[in-house]
Amino acid sequence: MERCNCRVGVERRSVDARKAHRDSRLTWFTPSAKIAPSHFSSFLMADDDDAAPIEAEFVETENSELIIARVENKTRQVERLLRLLQYTQALEIALEDAPTKTRDERCKSANWVLVHRVLMATKDVDGLLTNLNSEYYDLLMKYLYRGLATGDRPTCDQCLRLHEKLTQIAGMGCIMRALADTWNVV
What we know:
- It is found in: Cell projection; Cytoplasm, Cytoskeleton.
- It comes from Marchantia polymorpha subsp. ruderalis.
- InterPro entries: ARPC5 (IPR006789), ARPC5_sf (IPR036743).
- By secondary structure, the protein is mainly α.
- The chain is 55% helix and 0% strand.
- The chain folds into 2 domains: 13-57, no CATH class; 64-180, Serine Threonine Protein Phosphatase 5, Tetratricopeptide repeat.
- The longest helix has 20 residues, at 64-83.
């Protein structure tokens, strides 16, 4: 006799009995069940075989070409500020209007290159972060993790120095917010 994998001692007698048993289970206990992040209060009840992954609706807010054009404009401003040795203002401009609401990797990479340029140009980490507006802390932490993911030795060294100082200034909550926010990915 074949036994059910969820309850010991329940024998499967017929196709109808198996279907009724399967339908009686809540699928949010199974690994195949997906619960949309915006609907945590309601549970998904569906058949295991019929359960399709639920994705929250994602709407592109802007055209990719407009985002790339905006990043190119920011690049000119940042380069001018870097020549004037105004690193904090350059970093604020690079972080301003970061393309977090798009899925286009070209837009995200273009802005990462700009932020990376500022991070690698600065030598005074303390001065950079003490003068930085606090609204950019969480976004900067996300870019630091992206820099660490590159595996490039100089980039990782600079990102680790900045991570240490940013954690001292912004606290552990900054790390948690950067890691927990999966919607606004840089």
